[in-house]
Amino acid sequence: MDLLEGIRAFVATAQTGSFTAAAERLGVSNRLTSKYVAELELRLGVRLLQRTTRKVGLTPAGEDLLARAPVLLDELDDLVAGLGEDGRGLSGVLRVSAPVTFGEVFVQDMLRRFAEPHPDLTIDLRLSDRFVDLATEGIDLAFRIGVPRVSALRARKLGEVCSRIVASPDYLARNGAPEHPADLTNHACILDTNRAAASRWELLDAGQVVPVEVKGRFLVNSARAARDLALAGCGIAFCPDFVLADDLAQGRLVALLPGNESPHRPLNAIYLDGPVLPRKVRALIDFAVRELG
């Protein structure tokens, strides 16, 4: 067994939690993946994984290896790519995480443009509105709105996002427009349950953050769905600006209460802290800075 193949099989198994998922990631059989890991354990003289009928877990030795091996594999891939005939090309798998709506609206198209000049690069985009554990799930780079919560993560600021209050011309013709944030309590509002408090909108008023309690018949866990309901005249929505740009420009939605947007929140590229940043991750961050800045 090649030592590197064993380490790759171990990392994939540890990150996915099963030999089956690891085999799918590596493009080999389940049996071969299990064999590689077993031979690696025999060669090192330690048990790396605790096997059960449903999943695998890490031993202390496995935790130590997983903490260092992914970076070493990335460095090796970068070295090999740099020594090839086309040293400028990127290769391997680049695993990216992003919030669902932002990923659908912007990230997926940005990744398509980024990958075009790199035919040997595979993009694995995972969209989720939960806070993904980068180390556990093997994520190279995450796009997140807000400040990182974990000290082991590093952030590169790409821009800022704010949310705006909008409604359709039809809704406003039937119900009138709020003139002050407090007036929102008398309107049908569309609540996005991805927010920490869906029924409490935090708005800027004379530079101060003011919470406003709202209510409505529609609760959704998607900013895009909230936008769509607002377009249909179902109520007033409070959505991130990247979802609204085209509809505001075309007059399909109207921005309400100018000056009462949400506080601006940073849009960051998040990655694990470490001594070396893999070349493909660094290249994507630089590309995102140009695209999103």
TrEMBL record:
Domain HTH lysR-type: 1-59
The family this protein is said to belong to: Belongs to the LysR transcriptional regulatory family.
Protein's name according to its UniProt entry: LysR family transcriptional regulator
Pfam families for this protein: HTH_1, LysR_substrate
Entry superkingdom: Bacteria
Gene3D superfamilies listed in its UniProt record: 3.40.190.290, Winged helix-like DNA-binding domain superfamily/Winged helix DNA-binding domain
InterPro entries per UniProt: LysR-type_TF_proteobact-type, LysR_HTH_N, LysR_subst-bd, WH-like_DNA-bd_sf, WH_DNA-bd_sf
Protein species of origin: Sedimentimonas flavescens
Record keywords: DNA-binding, Transcription, Transcription regulation
Keyword Transcription regulation: yes
